[in-house]
Amino acid sequence: MDEGLDRKMSSDKGTERWNPQVLYYWVLSILIVGSLLVSTITPKSNDIPAELQGTWITSDAAHADRFLHFSVMSIVFGTGNGGVATGFVQGVDVAVENDQTLYAIDYRTDSGNQRVLLVYRPQDGTLRFKNQDKLIWKKRSS
Q1: pTM to 2 decimal places
Q2: For residue 48, is it within any domain?
Q3: What are phi and psi of 112, to 5 degrees?
Q4: Is the predicted pLDDT of residue 2 greater than 90, yes or no?
Q5: Could you read off the pLDDT of 125-135 as tens digits, one per residue?
Q6: Residues 92 and 133 in one domain
Q7: Is 46 helix (H, G, I), strand (E, B) or coil?
Q8: 3-state secondary structure at position 56
Q9: For residue 69, how many other CB atoms are within 10 A of its CB?
Q10: Are residues 10 and 63 in the same domain?
């Protein structure tokens, strides 16, 4: 009979119950850590922002036959004389500076990976290449 009691007592050792309060804090901690991990590994957006989507033209005579066209996932440069260069967007970084927004668009062409830096000024709806501040682009009306 003592042997049966010993067996029952040894089998009860593995079924200890957790204190509900301790279990609550463990679950809460795991959820918080999991949320932080998910938020830090979210990939950057590959979509062109809505304010850039569309066709952009310039009134500069030297670039009269040029255009820029942005869709959700591609960028097209009108290179003149009917030529175009197309790239597929790999990522978009956005930085707001005072009254303008800097867009760094990474895209892939047949030539390899490229990056273009654009400055968008929402107050007048203009777009400029960061390295060509004098050349102003405006969105063509649909």
Answers
A1: 0.67
A2: no
A3: 125, -165
A4: no
A5: 999 999 998 99
A6: yes
A7: coil
A8: strand
A9: 17
A10: no
